[in-house]
Amino acid sequence: MNEVVYQSLGHGITCIDAGYIQTGIACFYLLEEAGEYAVVETGTSHSFSALAQLMADRGITPEQVRYVIPTHVHLDHAGGAGTMMAAFPQAQLLIHPRGARHMENPARLIDSAMTVYGEDAFRRLYGEILPVDSQRIREVQDGEYIDLAGRALQIRHTRGHADHHFCVWDEASRGWFSGDMFGVSYSWFRFADDDFLLPTTTPTQFDPDAYYASLKLLGSYGPQRMYLTHYGELSYSQQKSQSLGQQVQAYAEFAVTHTDDPARLEQALTDYSVKLLRQLDADSSTAQHRDWLQFDMQLNAKGLQVWQGRAAAKPARELECRKDRQC
Fold first, then answer.
1. Model-level pTM?
2. Distance between CA atoms of residues 215 and 212, nearest Å
3. Are the C-beta atoms of residues 146 and 152 closer than 8 Å to each other?
4. Predicted local confidence at residue 114, as pLDDT
5. Domain spans of the chain?
6. Please, are residues 199 and 100 in contact by the beta-carbon 8 Å criterion?
7. What's the gap between Cα 38 and its chain centre?
8. Which residue ranges of the chain lie beneath pLDDT 50?
């Protein structure tokens, strides 16, 4: 049996490692209030065993879980939703309206991921993706409040990373469950002077203008902490938010400059991020920094390419709309 890795963060919140790729890459959260529970993010179907072990250790029954709340339907965030809903008979699945159909019928998510990874790697990474009964899915609107035994959680739609993304505000901890909207910051990006964060522009719905707006929205609540999916609790600061915004701007400029050269785009992103990292960590080698960044730079470059391709196709689509008078 794999070791169950989790950490109590206070405020009734426990961070659980999702066992995705390797320890420390992705996590999800168990939130408790007066004997009722919500699971924020789900990891993959492989992640359920860690949650089941934690619940057994603490004497929590499946019936006490009221909500399962993926921030969006990317499979490292929502891949385990069907497995958890099958295990928790009293739970509702809370999801962005744009993501609900993918939870009811995950075929398109599965096909898309298999195209990228191949079937063997897909099964290794994500396991089985189970559908969720539509009667147990609740589409949550922007600004809507969720009640967990008297503890108010507010849902705010936050585009920029994905159109089907929301963040969850927990007034009790003054923290955001931020999904991918406040970037990624693994343990190896945490330094004595400050933490390093980088945006995630994973395919296929990156939108820089929406990203800036979402960062501004998150900051407007005066948060003290962010609960990242990649990875764990992070203190909030205006400087961190500004840094993410500046990186998004730089990413967009690199994407425009290197539209036709994917390899050069990835190289430009990596060189830029290494310079930022060295400002906080002069002790590690440049080779170590590049190794830390490699996986995310590959994904970010792919997402930026999709964004540029979509932007290039937009005038042609608008022309067809005007001709057909159907858009």
1. 0.92
2. 5
3. yes
4. 87
5. 6-237, 241-324
6. no
7. 17
8. 1, 315-319, 321-323, 327
